[in-house]
Amino acid sequence: MLLAALLLWLLQCPLEPWSAHAHPLYTRLPPSTLQVLSAQGTQALQAAQRSAQRAVKRVATELQLKLHECRGPDWRPAPPAPPPPAPASFARPCGERRPAAANVTRAHGRIVGGSAAPPGAWPWLVRLQLGGQPLCGGVLVAASWVLTAAHCFAGASNELLWTVVLAEGPRGEPAEEVPVNRILSHPKFDPQTFHSDLALVQLWTPVSPAGPARPVCLPQASPEPPAGTPCAIAGWGALFEDGPEAEAVREARVPLLSPDTCQRALGPGLRPSSMLCAGYLAGGIDSCQGDSGGPLTCSEPGPRPREVLFGVTSWGDGCGEPGKPGVYTRVAVFKDWLQQQMSAAPSTREPSCMELLAQDPPEEYPADARLCAFYARRCPLPEGACARLARQQCLQRRRRCALARPAPSLWESPESAAREQRLDSGTPASPAAPTLCDSGASPLPEGCPGLEPLRQKLAALQGSHAWILQVPSERLAMHFQEVLADLSSKTLTGLFRAWVQAGLGGRRVAFSGLVGLEPATLARSLPRLLVQALQAFRSAALAEGKPLGGLPPAS
Ligand code: ARG
């Protein structure tokens, strides 16, 4: 009798219970839903491939134009590189906003994701891109330093793949993209708890004081403002939970909350000594996915009000949910670490891959011995066993860096004396337009300003998009094989934790996500699952260093 009733219930249940483990708290999405997911996944893949092709093509074209420009009849080699620039000094002190921008946004900002910020309103807000894809926000805190969240680099700490897009100007002057020289995650960052979720990113070239980007103030002496102070958040993050990313910067005002209120709202996951929370317990206004690493600034009053960075966007429970304010890394607590890192003498730090690889010729001991001084810092004598070992260590690091660079062919410099000659004498190069391959593998003409960042950008793009660029379009189909939802894990937004298995080409990935089990919640959860699946395929391909489907790289 009981068995019959159970059977009847099973038959009525639109979702098949998880038979493999015979656990009543799991349910498997039916094949029809998997089909819908697969079809949408395939579309997402096609879109991702198109956008990767566009991104690579755009930079390849820029690079070709630059090469033409440098090899053209009017090109002359630039004079030797100037000594390292003195620290840039900005005309305005830190944290100053343009008066118009400050007026526009002082009054309010409301609704999840806030309101659109006028161009140039947040001159210190930057965007961190992995292989050309925006992933996180960041905050310019000095001419060469960006502060962001350490969790942005989880699984992608290779600085050769990252670039920073600086703030655009007030009249929409285009934003500058700068390669990353070094990523310094806080040594105590814990990816499980998000404790010490802070990282410093050193830019390859300092920000020009003549440009629109300028640094925010760090809370050196300023005491943290009291609870209730309205502060500002800004970023390109999602407009609502699981929603699309904003096309332009958005901003909102959120009040700081007391440590007690934060702790009550968010429970033991919140560590008030190094995290602060801000927002409205009623919900509605908050930062969201993609805003991580961005600023929470509070205005310090005075004749010339300045914005001081008290928080860096870190985590939240959903976005704008009632009773769940956003959590920000408490910057003031880390000010000594920040100061130490930003003022450290170059010889106290291991040379970065960017520094080592920027040296020519590529596979030899760096011509600039200062780069390797770090390894010999404890050697009693400039020659001898210790110094030899130091040399070896430096060489080894350089080799490791060479392996980590995204597209080796773009970095190889088969130095051709004839071509060097041609470039040096300013005679036009071969009339044939350089192909993508040619422009990548050709030697770097010294003194061609802007060429190196473009080459790096192209290399990074090709490396990070290789996983999808190399899949033939007829193989571009995603198959969702199984989605198992844990019925006991319903969130406040009506979603369930789920174990997802998907395939693309010969590759299978599995990850956990959130899924809705009713039509409305299911529809809402699909985009996020698709994004996660794409990310899982990309990480799997990058980790194995092979394109999807195990195909040989395109020739
Ligand atoms: N961790 C998110 C990110 O990586 C930021 C989440 C902020 N969430 C919030 N509800 N305030 O972008």
Order of helices and strands: HEEHHEEEEEEEEEHEEEEHHHHHHHEEEH
Largest sheet: 7 strands, antiparallel
**Total beta-strand segments:** 18
Mean pLDDT over the residues: 77
Total domain units: 3
Q: How many DSSP helices?
A: 12
| CATH homologous superfamily designation of the largest domain | Trypsin-like serine proteases
- Judging by the overall fold, what is the CATH architecture of the largest domain? Beta Barrel
Question: Roughly what percent helix?
Answer: 25-40%
Bound molecules: arginine
Oligomer: single chain
Strand order of the largest sheet: 3-11-10-13-14-15-12
Terminal CA distance reads: 66 Å
Q: Give the radius of gyration.
A: 26 Å
Shape: globular
- Overall SS class: alpha+beta
Contiguous low-pLDDT stretches (5 residues minimum) are 1-22, 73-88, 103-111, 408-445, 549-555
Would you tell me which CATH topology of the largest domain applies? Thrombin, subunit H
CATH class of the largest domain: Mainly Beta
Topology record:
Blueprint: H1 2-12, E1 16-17, E2 26-28, H2 31-71, H3 99-106, E3 115-116, E4 125-130, E5 133-142, E6 145-148, E7 162-165, E8 177-185, E9 199-203, E10 230-235, E11 250-255, H4 259-266, E12 275-278, E13 295-300, E14 306-315, E15 326-330, H5 335-343, H6 353-357, H7 385-404, H8 408-411, H9 417-425, H10 436-441, H11 451-469, E16 478-486, E17 496-504, E18 507-515, H12 519-544
Helix pairs in contact: 2-11, 2-12, 11-12
The protein binds arginine.
